[in-house]
Design brief:
The protein has one domain: Phosphoenolpyruvate-binding domains (TIM Barrel, Alpha-Beta Barrel). It has an eight-stranded parallel beta barrel with strand order 1-2-3-4-5-6-7-8, surrounded by six helices. α5 packs across α6. By secondary structure, the protein is of the alpha/beta class. The mean pLDDT is 95. It contains twelve helices and eight strands. The structure holds 3-methyl-2-oxobutanoic acid. The site of 3-methyl-2-oxobutanoic acid has 10 residues, from loops.
Length: 292
């Protein structure tokens, strides 16, 4: 068996777990295809999340409930083919881990076979049996508590969670249960910063925040939101670093104009035959179009 060098450049789930308490926050960014995976990996992020947000930011659905395990595997495979240094985490979609532990493990395995090195699922204590079953199949699991978008209908919308004391307590207890079960990290979405701080201090695995303030062990954001590509008004917790949809539209407008005014393609953008062949082709064209 080949033994990986201790200085392996690839980020692993145990490596992420070991970063709890480190001074350097973890960074996770979503990606859904090869170009976005290359950009995320080049940025130096620690983890690439092939999130079920692809339903909304890539496939145009209104929520994340429409994607299947096959959809996720398709996108995970595209990301994994770029062989990133970052850890590839595959999101288990809605209904892929709700029916039985056997089905859950099969679906988690499908994401690993597609190229994920870990899977993520949403929910707290009630997911513990599923997390245990996946871990038993030797697949690292990332938890996800707070706002869990797959519960959008049960929650009554995409809303900040844990604003009341009782609700905050539930989130803390859920995170503790997931950490104790063996999740190597937990996403904490859309909670007040004081609650995020308590969750982060209450568990011994990294808490990766999104809309959870600065006291977490790391941060995750959606690629299309960061780059101004999502075509929607981004939530207040997003910092947008580019306006790529505007830039792309402007670039394509210039192409359309260049084609219409005849400036594209130029001679340098065109294949040319030798002068003799060009002349012979022109003569051939003239004789073929001459009246009989
Ligand atoms: O699916 C996703 O992109 C996510 C992040 C928002 C954390 O779960």
């Amino acid at each position: 068996m080949a033994v990986q060098a201790a200085s392996s450049p690839h980020v692993t789930a145990p490596g992420v777990r070991a970063r709890k308490g480190s001074d350097e926050p973890l960074v996770m960014i979503t990606a859904y295809d090869a170009p976005s995976a290359r950009v995320v990996d080049e940025s130096g992020a620690d983890m690439i999340l092939v999130g079920d947000t692809l339903a909304m930011v890539v496939l145009g659905y209104d929520d994340t409930l429409q994607v299947t395990t096959d959809d996720m595997a398709h996108h995970i495979a595209a990301v994994a083919r770029t062989k990133p240094r970052a850890l590839v985490v595959g999101d288990l979609p809605w209904m892929s881990y709700h029916v039985s532990t056997a089905e859950t493990v099969r679906n988690a395995a499908a994401l690993v076979r597609a190229g994920a090195s870990a899977v993520k699922l949403e929910g707290g204590r009630k997911r513990v049996p599923m997390v245990e079953a996946i871990l038993d199949a030797e697949i690292p699991v990332m938890g996800h508590v707070g706002l869990t978008p797959q519960s959008v209908h049960a929650l009554g919308g995409f809303r900040v969670q844990g604003k009341e004391l009782d609700a905050a307590r539930v989130i803390v207890d859920d995170a503790i249960a997931l950490a104790e079960t063996g999740c190597f990290a937990i996403v904490l979405e859309c909670v007040p910063d004081a609650v995020a701080r308590l969750v982060t201090e209450s568990v011994d695995v990294p808490i990766i925040g999104i809309g959870a303030g600065r006291h977490c062990d790391g941060q995750v954001l959606v690629y299309h939101d960061l780059l101004g590509l999502s075509g929607r008004r981004v939530p207040k917790f997003v910092r947008q670093y580019a306006a790529m949809e505007d830039d792309a539209t402007e670039a394509l407008r210039r192409f359309v104009a260049d084609v219409r005014d005849g400036s594209f393609p130029a001679a340098t953008e065109t294949y040319h035959a030798s002068d003799s062949v060009t002349d012979a082709v022109a003569v051939m064209g003239r004789s073929e179009s001459a009246p009989a």
